Amino acid sequence: xxxxxxxxxxxxxxxxxxxxxxxxxxxxxxxxxxxxxxxxxxxxxxxxxxxxxxxxxxxxxxxxxxxxxxxxxxxxxxxxxxxxxxxxxxxxxxxxxxxxxxxxxxxxxxxxxxxxxxxxxxxxxxxxxxxxxxxxxxxxxxxxxxxxxxxxxxxxxxxxxxxxxxxxxxxxxxxxxxxxxxxxxxxxxxxxxxxxxxxxxxxxxxxxxxxxxxxxxxxxxxxxxxxxxxxxxxxxxxxxxxxxxxxxxxxxxxxxxxxxxxxxxxxxxxxxxxxxxxxxxxxxxxxxxxxxxxxxxxxxxxxxxxxxxxxxxxxxxxxxxxxxxxxxxxxxxxxxxxxxxxxxxxxxxxxxxxxxxxxxxxxxxxxxxxxxxxxxxxxxxxxxxxxxxxxxxxxxxxxxxxxxxxxxxxxxxxxxxxxxxxxxxxxxxxxxxxxxxxxxxxxxxxxxxxxxxxxxxxxxxxxxxxxxxxxxxxxxxxxxxxxxxxxxxxxxxx
Length: 494
Description:
There is one protein chain. Helix content is 39%, strand content 21%. By secondary structure, it is an alpha+beta fold. It has a domain at 6-252 and 474-493: Ribosomal Protein S5, domain 2 (2-Layer Sandwich). Strands 1, 2, 3, 4, 7, 8, 9, 16 and 17 form a nine-stranded mixed sheet that branches. The longest helix has 25 residues, at 352-376. The protein starts with 21 loop residues before the first helix and ends with a strand. Residues 381-449 form the GHMP kinase C-terminal domain. Residues 152-232 form the GHMP kinase N-terminal domain. Keywords: ATP-binding, Carbohydrate metabolism, Galactose metabolism, Kinase, Nucleotide-binding, Transferase. One of its GO terms (molecular function) is galactokinase activity.
C-alpha cells in the first residue's frame, strides 16, 4: 500500500540480522499522536489495552500455483508486513479502519454488525456473509478482515459476545503477488485468537485463512501463501507439502546469495479468470486421469503432483485434450471435483498444459531445494542449476498455463541478459501469475548492484519505477502477538 523509504532497500532477503519492524514502529508512532489529529489513533482506541499481530509478505521462490495440485513448494518471508491491532468494544459491531503506513492520509472505515454472522440460534452460511462483505465495492478489502473473523467463528463454533475495533495497517501492496491477502487473514486470525485465548497452531490458522479466502473473499487459492506467512521463519526458506498443507522443513539460503522480488506493476488477482481457468483445467485433467486409472483397475490419485513426470508422459499425456468446452466436459465427466471453482458450460478451458504444469513443477521444486543444499555444501555449479530451474518454472507458466504477461517476461529477460557472469542465477513469475512480482536469485553483491539497474531499465519501458521487495521478518507464529496498555505516559508496550 505504500513505498518504503529507499534506505530500506537492498538488504539481503534472508539476512538473519533482526531489524526493527517497520509496521510496528509506524503503529507506535500513530498511537502517540494527540487527540484531534485525524491521522492518529486517539479517536479510534479508548484507554485500556490493544493487542497487535504482525504478519510478513511472502516471496514465492518455487512452486506457485502447483499448491492446489498437491505439490511441494519453497517459500520465503519478506521484510514488509501487515499489522492488525484489536480492541474489544462494548457493542456487537466490527469497526474496521485501514490506514496507509508511511505517509499522511485520512483513514478509511467500515462497520460490520456481528449479527450478520449469525442466523437464529446458529451461525450463518458462508454465502450470506460473502454477500454482506461484498455489498459495497468501495470497501471490498473488509472481506479479508470480516471474512477471517467469520471463518474463525464458524469453524471453531464461537458465539462472539462483543465486537472489536480493528486497525489494518499494511506495507504490503495488494494484487502484486506477494501474499497481501494471506498476510491480512493471518494477522486477523492471530490477533483474534490471541485475544480469545485460543490454542490454535500455525497450521490451523493457515487453514482458516485459506477457507476465508475461498468462501468469503471468493478467491480459489491453494494454501501455500497462508502456511508460508504463518509458519515461515526469518532468514529461512520454508519447504511446504500442499497435501493439503504441512511444513516439511526449512532450507538454508546458500551463503553469499539472496532472493528479492521486483513488482512488475501489472496488477494480478487470484480471483480473476486466468488463474481460476487454469485451476479448472488442472482439475479437469485430474478427473480425466482418474477415469483412465479406474478403467485400468488403478486407485485414483488425490493430487496431480502424486504423479512423476515420466509416469504422466508415458500413461496420460496423449489422452488429455489440449482444450475442451465446459459443456463437453460436463456431459462426459459430470464434475471436476473442485469445491471452490465452477465450470462455465460456454467457456473453453485449456487442459493438457495446466495438468502438466504442477506435475513437472513439483519435480522442479524438489530438484531446486536439493541444488540449494548442494550449493550450501560448496557446489558452485548448483547455484546455476537452481537458477535454471527457476527459468523452467517461468517457461511453464507461459507455455502450459498462459499466466504470464509481456511486462513480466521482459523483467525475467533483463535478469537472464545479465546472467551468471553478473552473478544473477535465475528469475521467475510468482504466485498466481498474470502480472505481479518477479522473484530473482543471485549473489548478494549482484543483487545490490544489478537489481536497481534492472528496475531503472524496466521503468524506462513502463514509465514508472517498480518497488523492490527485500528483507526478511518473522512469520505469524514466530512473531506471536504484542500487548499495549494506556497509562500515565500514554500507550506503551506491556
